[in-house]
Amino acid sequence: xxxxxxxxxxxxxxxxxxxxxxxxxxxxxxxxxxxxxxxxxxxxxxxxxxxxxxxxxxxxxxxxxxxxxxxxxxxxxxxxxxxxxxxxxxxxxxxxxxxxxxxxxxxxxxxxxxxxxxxxxxxxxxxxxxxxxxxxxxxxxxxxxxxxxxxxxxxxxxxxxxxxxxxxxxxxxxxxxxxxxxxxxxxxxxxxxxxxxxxxxxxxxxxxxx
Length: 210
Description:
Elements: H1 5-17, E1 26-27, H2 29-36, H3 40-53, E2 56-59, E3 63-66, H4 71-92, H5 98-113, H6 117-132, H7 138-156, H8 165-180, H9 184-209
Antiparallel strand pairs: 1-3, 2-3
Helix pairs in contact: 1-3, 4-7, 4-9, 5-6, 5-8, 6-7, 8-9
């Protein structure tokens, strides 16, 4: 049973990704406390953590509201992702070795066989985390994680493992191949293409939902 603010924030995040609450919907502290078997204090602290991540917005007299993104918001987030993630990739590629790239490839193999939405999204998250990990830039890694989380929930309940499966796999494998060759420029080109296509998919889902 979740008792700490971090535990509760993780569970709220999972439920947000699963579409438990619609964008713009209010999250009531007392209802969350009942849902997660916790007192209201850690629930409030959890909501403040999610507010800092941009997943909810703490508003006077309304409490926590699930953030609703439009296409302009998504464009801004992906502009930032391209800058931060290419920075991470630039520092990570020279530090990758056969062992670290084997871990990335293993995640990709599991990802290509994944059929559940939650497992697929988690695998994609782990793929990028392992790809950037050798950069050893904890602040940039934290920023990248926060930016990803802000659009992640649109992927989980609207996209499926079958969405662009072949294209997604090719984009990831292009990244792996460029990393093996230590070709930073090729890696950056492949990453930008991958993020561009992901942005298009998320924005398309937002358009279809309006």
